[in-house]
Structure formats: C-alpha cells, structure tokens
Amino acid sequence: MLMLGFAGFMGILKIILMAISAFGLFDAAFRREDAFRAADKQNKVFWLIILGIALVVSYLFTILSILPIAGAVASIVYIVDVRPALQQVGGGRGWGRRRGSSSDGPYGPWNGGR
Predict the structure, then answer these.
(1) d(CA 98, CA 52)
(2) 17-28: pLDDT as tens digits
(3) pTM for the full model?
(4) What CA–CA distance (Å, rounded) separates 99 from 85?
(5) Half-sphere exposure of residue 19, counting CA atoms within 13 Å on the CB side?
(6) What 3-state DSSP class applies to 105?
(7) Does residue 103 contact residue 110 with C-beta atoms inside 8 Å?
C-alpha cells in the first residue's frame, strides 16, 4: 500500500517536471533571437536544445535517475533566470504580446488629426 502511494506521488512529480520543461520549451520557442543576445544569455538554439532534451529525458527516464534531475534544473534555470531577463529586454511576454501597427504612438494609435 505504501509503495502504491509512493508510485503515485512519483508519477505526479514526473508530470509536473514534464509540464515545467514543456512550458520553458514553448516559451523559448516564441521568443526573439535578438532578445537572448540583448539579455546576455545563451542563444535561442542552445535553450531550445537543452529544454527539448529535458522534456524528452523527463518522459523517458524514471524521476530517481540523474538525467531528469539535470533536466529539471535546466528548466528551472530558464524559468527563474533567463525568462525574466528576456521579458525585461523584450518588453513583456513573447508569445502573447500585443503587437501594434507602425502608426502607433506612445499613447495609442495615431489617427492623423481626425
């Protein structure tokens, strides 16, 4: 009975770690490449590879081995360190950001004096 509860807890933990890795991967995929350079972080391809490997490893291996733990650390580093730096440089969210037109001024759209 105790082992069944432990296996259920480890399964939930595995799903949480996969969700963190997937969130980091999708967030990095929709960020601009120049934002990574401007934030003085590793480039976009590096983070996409690391977070993709972390997602695959957390799916394939048991949570008690070293590879999913390393993947979880990489995902947490991206979310805690890289993502806020990219948000400061990029001016907000990468994938849900509202993009204005070229005629938008600092206080909203410019309508030409109409």
Answers:
(1) 27
(2) 999 999 999 999
(3) 0.72
(4) 20
(5) 6
(6) strand
(7) yes
